[in-house]
Specification:
Length: 342
């Protein structure tokens, strides 16, 4: 009897063992499947105009144009808010030509509206100076400021876009096409009625940046780390609170004015301590230029910095994440400055 019970127990153990193994295997497979799904979900979104580590990148000597590094520099990308560099160039060329001054008051027309995710909030009839609009354009990446400046410059939205494309052609930006002055994607429901995405390449953006860095006024805007947006009785004004290599300043708010918000530069290599590039004399090297991001086009940056009188320009377009963009742009700038200023 005892032998029979022992035999039955042994058989049951043998039969049970495969079930346990199968169950364990199923759990492991399910766990692996969930892990794979989580990995896919957490991975950066990629596509034709958004890739890891980037769609295209280049670094050059700003003065000579000599290429220091190039990787897919002629690949088409969506520049997003990097577009605003062309907007700034045309405005600064207007100022240089005497068409209007930086202190000229600009009245917003019906073309101006809140454009996500960054804006001033200027309404029809409200005023800002050209200088303050340019500051909001470069620091806050204000999409409404781009439109206000464009309409003021050319008389209409369409006329300004035509000027953008004409100037791009003059600069040899053969693979660039602009449809708007701020880089937002087309979306009729959000009042972005343009036909398509702005497109460009890393090499084309270098050509634009080489022209911009020759203007001291441009770097006075792009080197601003923080500034305050102040509501006035007529519109808005901007007070600079910190530039690269300068101490923090306090904003004086007059009676009848209101502090709306502090605007912070999105150029992480310039503003974040962990990413800053320092020269041997202890000063920060980076003083511009502009970042950009849209879902379809990823993260982009046109970066510039100087060391011992030598200036480098780095362009990284279409990174799958802002971290990849910043990592590669910083490394390329450090390498470029090191090779130029030894």
């Amino acid at each position: 009897m005892n032998r029979l019970l022992l035999l039955i127990s042994a058989v049951l153990l043998v039969l049970a063992a495969p079930a346990a193994v199968r169950q364990g295997s199923g759990v492991r497979k399910a766990t692996a499947k969930r892990a794979a799904q989580q990995e896919v979900v957490s991975a950066p979104v990629q596509g034709a105009h958004r890739r890891s580590p980037y769609v295209g990148a280049i670094s050059v000597n700003a003065e000579t144009g000599d290429v220091i590094f190039s990787d897919n520099a002629d690949a088409e990308a969506y520049p997003a808010s990097v577009t605003k560099l062309m907007t700034l160039l045309l405005v600064m060329e207007d100022v240089k030509a005497g068409k209007y001054s930086l202190d000229a008051a600009v009245e917003a027309t019906a073309d101006a509206y809140k454009s996500e995710p960054s804006w001033v909030g200027i309404k029809v009839g409200e005023k800002m100076s050209v200088r303050d609009l340019c500051m909001a354009l470069m620091v806050e990446s204000a999409n409404d400021a781009a439109i206000v400046l464009g309409v003021h410059s050319a008389g209409s939205f369409d006329a300004f876009v035509a000027r953008m494309n004409a100037r791009a052609a003059e600069l040899g930006m053969k693979n660039t096409k602009y449809f708007n002055p701020n880089g937002l994607p087309p979306n009729a429901s959000k009042r972005y009625p343009w036909k398509s995405f702005n497109v460009s390449t890393a090499r084309d953006q270098v050509r634009l940046a080489q022209t911009l860095v020759k203007m001291p006024e441009v770097l006075s805007f792009t080197s601003v780390k923080t500034c305050d947006l102040i509501k006035t009785k007529d519109g808005f004004r901007v007070s600079v609170t910190r530039r690269a290599n300068e101490p923090i300043r306090e904003t004086a708010v007059a009676a009848g004015e209101k502090l709306v918000k502090q605007m912070r530069n999105h150029n992480n290599v310039m503003v974040k301590d962990a990413r800053k590039v320092f020269n041997p004399d202890g000063k920060e090297a980076v003083d511009g230029l502009k970042t950009g991001y849209i879902d379809d086009g990823g993260s982009s940056v046109v970066l510039t910095g100087a060391r011992k009188g030598k200036r480098a320009i780095v362009v990284v377009l279409g990174s799958a994440s802002s971290k990849e963009r910043d990592d590669h742009a910083r490394r390329l700038l450090v390498d470029a400055l090191g090779s130029m200023a030894w």
